[in-house]
Amino acid sequence: MTPPHLRTDLATGPAGRATPATAEQERRLPFPTGFVWGAATAAYQIEGGAAEDDRTPSIWDTFSHTPGRVRNGDTGDIAADHYHRYRDDVALMAELGLQAYRFSISWSRVQPTGRGPAVERGLDFYRRLVDELLEAGVAPVATLYHWDLPQELEDAGGWPVRDTAERFGEYAAIMADALGDRVALWTTLNEPWCSAYLGYGSGVHAPGRTHGPDALRSAHHLNLAHGRAIAAIRARLGSSAQTSITLNLHQVRPFSQSPADLDAARRIDAVGNRIFTGPILDGSYPADLCQDTAALVDWNALVRPGDLAAISAPIDRLGINYYTPTLVSAPDRAGASAVRSDAHGVSEYSPWPGSEDVVHHQAPGPTTAMGWAVDPSGLYDLVTDVSRRYPRLPLMITENGAAFDDYVSPEGEIRDPERIAYLHGHLDAVRRAIADGADVRGYFLWSLMDNFEWAYGYGKRFGAVYVDFPTQRRIPKSSAHWYADVLRRNSLPPLGG
C-alpha cells in the first residue's frame, strides 16, 4: 500500500492553497504543506531490455532502428538499463529525498500485441518496481502511455484508427488489476499532442507518418483512449482511484497585438491546447477548431455518439508539462513561409494541421542545449491561466527541466549551474502562481536521469543524474544535490546559496 502521508498528498488531501502575498512575503514563502516533490522518466527512454521477457517492438523500436530517423543511429535497446538496475535507481531516489516517482509502463512489455492476455513476466517487472518504491517511501505515479504504441497496433492502423482507443481501455484494465491501489496516481496519457502531431503530422517522432488528417484523427482517438482508460480504472478500482492526464499545454503568445497575429495565436491555441482541454474538461470540441480544420476532417463523422461523455469523465488532477513558450505570428507579408520546426525536430511537414501557415518564432532570451528559450514567466502564465479557467481542478507540474551540455570534470563532478538557475526560476514561478491562488499540488523534475532523448538519441542530457552510458554509472549532478535541498526545505534557497 502507498505510505499514508504520501497517499494523502497525492490522492485525497489538498496541499493547501496560499493567499496572495506581498513581494516581501513572497521572497520568504515556502511551498504549501503537503506539496509533492518528485521526478519523472519514461519507459522507452530508460528501461532497455528491449527484447527480454517476451517484450515485442513498439513503434519507437521500429522508428529508432530505421536509418536516418534518430541522430547517430541511437536506439533504446539498452538506454539507461533501468530494467536491470531499477533497485539501484530507487535507492538513488530515496537518497535524494524524492517523495514521488512518475514512471511510464511499456505497453508492449505487458501486452506484446496490444490485445489479448498480459505477459506475467512483464507485469512482474512493474510489480517489483512499485514494491521497491513503496519500501523506499516513494509514491508510485504510473503513466500508462508515453508514446510507445505496440508495433502490431500501428500495423493495424495506429492512432488514426478508432480501434486503438478500445485496445487502450483493455490495457488500462490489465494494469489496474495488476497494480491496484498501490499506485498513488494513474495518468492515462503523456502529451497526446506529441503522439498525434509529431507522430502522424510532422513525422519527427514514431511512427514517422506525415498526414494532417490522420494527426487530427489521432488526437480524437487519443482523447477517447483517455476516456476508455478512466472508465476501466474506475470499474476495477472504484471511485477512490486517483486519475489524471498530462498535457504539454502551449503557452501561446502572439508576436504582436495585430489582429492577424492574435488570430494566429488563437489558431495554435485551438489545435495545440483546446483540442484536448475542450473535450476532456469542457465536454466538447471548440467550434473554431472544427472550422479551422474542416477541410481536413469531418468532425461530425469522427466524433460518435457517446464519445464526448466518455472523454469528459471527471479526473482528479491535470498534469502540466512546460519547457518554453510558443511565439507565433501570421504569415510574413514579405512572403516568408512558416517554420517547419517544433520542440523535437525539424521537418518539411507541419505539426499544426489546419494552421500550417502560422509562423513560429524563436522566443527571446537565453536558450538551453535544445535551443529552447528559458522563460519562467511562461510557466507562471500557463498555470494561472489554467487555474482561472478550471478553478476546481487541482494541478501538478508533471514535467519541467532543461538539457545542457553536461560533462564530468577531472574531479569526477558534474557542475550544472545553468540547470540550477533554470529550475530556480521555474520553481519560483510555480510558487508565485500558488501565492496568487493556483491550486498546484506537486512538481516532477524532468528528468531523474539522462536518457534516450527520442529523435536526438543520447546527444541531449536532461537528467539531474548523469548517466555514463558505456558503463551505466550514475553520478548525481550539482542540480540533483540542489533539488534535494529544495525538498528538505520545502522552499527555494537563495540562488547561489
UniProtKB/TrEMBL annotation:
InterPro entries, per database record: GH (IPR017853), GH_1_N_CS (IPR033132), Glyco_hydro_1 (IPR001360), Glyco_hydro_1_beta-glucosidase (IPR017736)
Region (Disordered): 1-24
EC number: 3.2.1.21
Ranges annotated as biased composition (Low complexity): 11-23
Keywords: Carbohydrate metabolism, Cellulose degradation, Glycosidase, Hydrolase, Polysaccharide degradation
Molecular-function annotations in GO: beta-glucosidase activity
Reactions accelerated catalytically: Hydrolysis of terminal, non-reducing beta-D-glucosyl residues with release of beta-D-glucose
Annotated SUPFAM superfamilies: (Trans)glycosidases
PANTHER family documented for this protein: GLYCOSYL HYDROLASE, LP05116P
Protein name stated in the entry: Beta-glucosidase
Organism the protein comes from: Streptacidiphilus cavernicola
